[in-house]
Amino acid sequence: MIEATHLQKNFGPVEAVRNVTLRARDGCITGLLGPNGAGKSTTLRILYTVLVPDSGDALIDGTSAVREPLAARRLMGVLPHGAGVYPNLTARENILYFGALHGLERRERQARAAELIQLLEMEEFADRIAKGFSQGQRVKTALARALVHRPPNVLLDEPTNGLDVMAVRTLRRLLGRLRDEGHCVLFSSHVMQEVGALCDAVVVIAHGTVVASGTPEELRERTGAGNLEDAFVRLIGTTEGLE
Amino acid sequence: MHAILSVFRKEFRENLRDRRTVISALIFGPLFSPLLFGAALSLSIERGTADSDRPVVLAVSHAERAPNLLAFLRQYRVTIEPVQYDDSAARAAVHEHRRALVLVVTDDFGARLAAGEPASLLLYADSSDAPGSRDVGRVTTLLGQYGSLLARLRMAARGIDPLVLSPLVVQDIDVSTPASRSVLALGALSYLVLLTTLMGGMYLAIDATAGERERGSLEPLLTVPVRREHLIFGKILATCAYMTLSLVLTVTAFAVVLRFLGLERFGMSVNFGPLVALQVVLCCLPLVPAGAALMTIVAAFTRSYREAQTYLGLVLLIPTLPLVFAGVLGLRPAASLMAVPSLGQHFLITSLLRDEPVPAPYVAISILATLVLGALLILVAGRLYQREALLG
Q1: What is the pTM of this model?
Q2: CA distance A41 to chain B (A)
Q3: Phi, psi of A52 (to 5 degrees)
Q4: Assigned superfamily of B55-173
Q5: H-helix or E-strand containing A68?
Q6: Record: contact A71-B15, CB cut-off 8 A
Q7: Inter-chain touch A81–B224, beta carbons under 8 Å
Q8: Which pLDDT tens digit goes with each residue over B259-314?
């Protein structure tokens, strides 16, 4: 469970995030939808403790990401934007490294890496050096790395960027599975179709602030729009930066 | 501590697979710099030896006018080539490099000499031509000696003691030992050792900071439950390991190259056995953490791999600055100077090679001061990694 209250973050004169309050429940996929530059990444970065907000707080299963970042990080698996992997390590070594940094014992992290490699259908390239990986292979590696410590909460920043259709299907299947296992999944996207297809709950964000949130049905009802796409357009006021 | 070691192991292993890091840290620096150094040194020694022994070839016009002078020159291994030149022919011959030196004996030479008047000789040389100008010094000295010989003979003939012409006797007494003479030539050695040690860690320092950010792997790394300063400590530790490897390889290669060079043949002995090599490594080792932390700090400030490379190229020059100042100002080891990192190491290496005893307090000051600087820089690097701007 992720609960953010009144998050505020300025970069110099720019208000990147204004009074953002949102909630992502366990057993749900929550989508953070907004045009590029709306403040999605900054919000996520505050949640996964890489940025410190100027004010407000975020609780990860009750642990403050602001005051106890180390403890909060144990409760989260994170796939940041454009997640880079180490080019001179194999996919498996990339996963094992993060397992070690999460404090897993050697045998435990090896077993977990093998499990994730099977789950994400990575057997074919698991023991190859990551240098020549396709975008899909890189994202799978980064995702396995993020899940190595069995985090109850999973945060993903634009995870489908640059993925081919097959890789997107695998990713969707995995997110669905995480939800069914009771995880809290929060991901950002500027692709309306994707959010509509995947999410149990949507938080619409524009100009650094939350303009609406609820289930897709609630959003349709509230805006009186016939479909989700029209609902988003009415909420944000434009389709600029959306797909 | 566990996390620091995990980071260290991963950086060490990953960079071992990076051809650029391996070539620069473990092959290019440690092997090529001693080889180049050895080649340059042996070339300069051989030229130096050759100069004093090489017979000088002197073209003499109208040699028949000064038979005694030529006999004198031949005694001093000057090879005489008789020619017939007038002034313009002599100029042309030297100018066109057909002759390095031409001596023209004037037509009234014999007559003036017999009359006890100054007799003239014309020596043509090209001062812009390096080999010719070296020989001109020797020939001028020999002619001067001949002249003073004649003067002494004339005075003796007039009943005056020739010693009145020598009010001063100056003797050069060279107290340099073979070992200390070779240190002049080996002055660049400590510089090269420090430089290759730094180069050994340079690519890892860049890869672990600017490279990590450019690849986009820094942000995921910052989401693991490890304090940021522990991440950077692990990276600095890995940089230290590569620098240490580079240092050991470089010093070993220097010891081997200098042994093969056979400096003893040239009257120089290099005190560079296995024990001295080990001592050189030990006195340079304290510089490793300071260098690693400094390079990490600079690389962490830059925005890209390329920018980091540019700035670290400049950082490589920093440890050479004290050496340059020491050279220009002619500094000698002193307690206060031993505290200057890289200068202290330079003095220690030089003393070891000269086979001179080093006061124990000097060694202690150098090691302690450098280690303290390293610790401070590591703390600064840790603080820098706390900044949000790190993500760029």
Answers
A1: 0.80
A2: 12
A3: -105, 130
A4: abc type-2 transporter like domain (3.40.1710.10)
A5: none
A6: no
A7: no
A8: 777 666 555 566 778 888 999 999 999 999 999 999 999 998 888 889 999 999 88
